[in-house]
Amino acid sequence: MIYAVILIYVALVLLIGIFSHKLFRGTGEDYFVATRTIGPFVLFMSLFGTHMTSFSILGASGEAYHRGIGVFALMASSSALITPCVFFFIGTRVWAIGKKHGYMTQIQYFRDRWNSSGLGLLLFVVLNLFLVPYVLIGVLGGGLTLNQMTKGGIPEWAGGLGVCIVILIYVTYGGMRGTAWVNTFQTLVFMFCGAFAFIVIVRDMGGLENAMRMVAEKRPDLLVSANQIHPLQLLTFTLIPLSAGMFPHLFIHWLTAKRASAFRSTIVLYPVAIALVWVPSVVLGVLGTVDFPDLKGAAANSILIRLIELHAPTLLAGLLAAGVVSSVMNSLDSQSLAIGSMFTQDIVRHYGLHDRMSEKQQVFYGRLFVAVVLLFSYGLSLTSHRSIFRVGVWAFSGFAALLPIVIAALYWKRSTKEGAIACVLTVVVSWAYFYYHAGDLDNYTVGGTGIMPVAVMLFASSLVLVVVSLLTKAPEPAVLDKFFPSAAKSTKLERMAT
Amino acid sequence: MKPFLYFLLIAMYVLHNDFFTWHESSLIFGFPAGLFYQIVYCFAATILMLFLVRYAWPANLDETEDGAPGK
């Protein structure tokens, strides 16, 4: 039965992807950003689905299993405030600039904003360095889910491979429009299934209050935040959701919006949607300690699947498995498309063809690189066994520390390319330093103080950007004219007046 | 209105640090008190976002409604 449900689900996903191809216009802009025609509903669903990965579903429940309810405050409610703010203050502005200048990747914007190909190349390397582990989370999550749900019938390697093949088909065929449509379907599936899993499992455990009392008897420490989380860790963890401002896969989704007002409903609904997805994940992770008390380390990533197997009838288990696989594929597809788009636009088109590339070539290279990225990530997943939550946190920390780049690009006219390059290098060095020092340590904080490495990385990168920008030559007026037209006008008026 | 909404954003950021429920182990509607607070916090954030998009939406964004050709 589980196999039948999974097959039907995959068939539906492929059908949507294939159907979207009917609207394909055969241009690079259509393949990468759906010719900027996405309306409010699909924009919200695709942005939210892309942002919520197996990190949110499997990783959060696995982490809550070890650390209790405080995980919700660490990642969910902090994202509920920070992420919509990022969309409001950064996403909408990026969309406007992207639409005005025809950008399809964030590197195109940063390269033009500071008139520096070197910065573009550096960012290309660094963004991919942080994004590949994140892609890996999806492949690992897909393999794990299918393996658990079929009781080992589908080996993890085959599950991960299956997920990659399905994504490969609809992303290469449907491009961004296909991805956004499939994302919308998948987001509906995993939101519905998450809530459904929560109700079914909690009811089977005698109701929420009863289930929590069972946890209180066995693991009371999981129900009180103070037992597992340092106050400074809670405070500094709120910086990690800032990563949304630099995620290449969210960036390309921002560019797909038809108009700025399409962002409004996304910004308003985001906090509630986050609660809807994370409450079941965290609560079920905690409740899992009642039925499966002895899971160690990364084995807890499968707690949600184990609970579904134990408490849900076969058909429901299949549906719920489809929900988890949805959340996994939802991000993996956009991430592959984002990397494929960066390879095509920022490397092949910019360096190989000197910014001249036919529409057909753009689509061809886009498809080719999506395939390469998926193949590469799949290969990596075969040798990686780290906790999904920790792999995610390290990837997010890198992106969050890069945030000063986009803020300076949008809001600080005096920022320079030297400042931006120094900022990126600072992030790379500090990230490598902390990653090396953390090693395999669980819950690493700076010097054991409770401060997350991201706080130090972000502070250092911001400081370096400001200091180096002020010490170097101010940007050319022509650049400011292009990106800050109103400021340029007032400067000219001031000059004329004097 | 904008400065007041930005002040509320900062206040919300501060309120995320729920040290008042930090050692609380009681259940509210079946949820541990700390988790219940954070769920309510998410709903409060939604209301704040509603006000933000209504009263602090940048006017110049709507000028970009019909855009430019692709690159």
Keyword list:
heterodimer, A: 498 residues, mainly alpha, 21 helices, 77% helix, globular, B: 71 residues, two-stranded antiparallel sheet, 2 helices, 2 strands, 6% strand, elongated, disordered C terminus
Task: Describe the structure in your own words.
The complex is a heterodimer of chains A (498) and B (71). Chain A is an all-alpha fold. Chain A has 21 helices and no strands. Chain A is globular. The model of chain A has no long low-confidence stretch (mean pLDDT 86). Chain B has a two-stranded antiparallel ribbon with strand order 1-2. In chain B, strand 1 (27-28) and strand 2 (31-32) form a beta hairpin. In chain B, helix 1 (2-15) runs antiparallel to helix 2 (33-55). The chains are: A mainly alpha (498), B mainly alpha (71).
Rg of chain A (C-alpha, Å)? 23 Å
Main sheet record of chain A: none
Number of DSSP helical runs of chain A: 21
What are the secondary-structure elements of chain A, in order, as H or E? HHHHHHHHHHHHHHHHHHHHH
Order of helices and strands of chain B: HEEH
Question: What is the CA-atom radius of gyration of chain B, in angstroms?
Answer: 18 Å
* Percentage of residues in helical conformation of chain B: 40-55%
Terminus-to-terminus distance of chain A:
80 Å
Structural class of chain B: mainly alpha
- Total strands of chain A: the figure is 0
